[in-house]
Every structure is written in structure tokens, then in C-alpha cells.
Amino acid sequence: MSREWNIVVCVKQVPDADDVSIDPDTGTLNRSDAEAVLNKPDYNAVETALRLKEAVGGTVTAVTMGPPFAKAVLEAAVGLGADDGILLTDRAFGGSDTWPTSLALAASAEELDGDVVICGEESTDSSTGQVPPGIAAHNDWSQLTYVEELEPRPENDELVATRDIEGGHEEVAASLPVVVAVGFGMNEPRVAGLHRKIFSETEFEPEEYSASDLGIEESVGLAASPTSVGGMDTADPVEREREMVDSVDELVDKLQSEGAI
């Protein structure tokens, strides 16, 4: 592999969590009711990709899957500094869950001859965390998850990650090609520069890939998605007991009597 790496950063357009609703008939998110925004953890993914490029050289290509208006999140990534963007758009992708989604992203990463694929640890609209490991599994690539720090070692074609694990941290080295899922908040994302932002919104046009372009038209969409919603119900709010006290001393006495302190 080259010392300069082909870095692919996966970004996703998600509905604003304050406006999202669920279709009661299908059990899927009704995205048309909410403003579409860039998935918050993906800002950390883009920043990680840009820092990696600064360290080892190469290119950063943002990739997203969605309808034509999903171009907006590619514009955001290019505005932040990504070199280019790819839009996976096709009616065949409609209804895809994490399995065909990760398959499509894996196929695009392979098409781009990616050395490193960087993703946010999860998306705010589903929070499964399944797509980054899915990309690695489909391509039989190395993977690093819950990453808090990255150290590139281009002389060995590998990345060393500090991972967040229960009770502490661990350092893991992985050979390229590798898929990295970065922790939400692991870095401070940069602000898009004015000239770059103007370019992304006025001149940038992403290349588009369809399912047939990637050779996966029979393996995506709702029919190829193993996830199903068994049912939905609305949880009633729980009435909490409340008691007013008149002083701090009375509060302390009450907490002591309840065994809280």
C-alpha cells in the first residue's frame, strides 16, 4: 500500500431528533416530518479522517447512502475539508436496514480502493452501532471500535487505536485496510472555512453510484433486510411520588430515614 492513504469517511443524513416520528404501519422512521441534518457522531468521524490525512497524506472521500437530497451531508463534509464525496442513491436501497447498508458502504469502499474507512460509532436515528463492524465483515477487513485515539504507523501499514472498554482502555494495532468506529466526542470538530463552505455549496457535485454500479442490486432494500419490527406500544408516564420539605435539615432527616444517605 502507498504511504499516502485513501481515507473513506462514512456520513449519514438523519432526522432531527426533536422532530422525528414513527410510521405506525411500517414501524420505520417517518423522515419526511423532520429536518434532515448530519449525524452528530459523524462530525467526529470527519475530523478524525482529516487529521489522519494531515498525518500521513492522501485523500479523504465522504460517502453517504440516501435519496438525492442527502447530498447536503456530503456538502457539509467537503466544506469541512473532505476532498470529494460519493452519493449512493437508488430506489433499490429504500428500506435497507444495517445489513444491506453496510454492504453498500463496504462495496463503495472497495470500489474506492480504500485503506481506512472511518465512521461515527452510531447514528442518532437508530443507535445500533452495527454499520462499521458490518462494513469490516462484508470486506473481511480489520476493525477498530469505540476508538478514542488513533496513531497512524504508515511504515507498517497499520493503525494503533486506544479503545474505550469497560473498566479502562486498551491499545490495539490493526493492519490496513481497516474500518474505524470513533467515539462520539473523541475530538473537537473544526469549523468549515468560508471559502471551502462556498465551494461545497456552489461548485461541488458528488459522483453517484447505484446498486447496479456496485453489483449488489439483489442484496439491498427492504426485502434484503433481516430486521423486522414485532410491534410498538406507547409507554405511559410513571407518576412519581413527591414530598415537599421546608428546610435543608428536614431534607437531610428525610433522606436519612429513607436510607438514601
Give the overall average pLDDT: 89
Query: Helical residue percent?
Result: 25-40%
The CATH superfamily label reads HUPs
Name given to the CATH architecture:
3-Layer(aba) Sandwich
Order of strands, widest sheet: 11-10-9-12-8-1-6-7-13
* Order of H and E elements: EEEEEHEHEHEHEEEEHEH
Strand content: 25-35%
CATH topology: Rossmann fold
Question: End-to-end span in angstroms?
Answer: 60 Å
Radius of gyration, in Å, reads: 22 Å
CATH class: Alpha Beta
Count of individual helical segments: 6
Task: Estimate the global geometry from the Cα principal axes.
Answer: globular
Number of strands: 13
Query: What structural category characterises the helix and strand content?
Result: alpha/beta
Could you describe the largest sheet, including whether it forms a barrel?
9 strands, mixed
Into how many domains do the coordinates divide? 1
Low-confidence regions: none
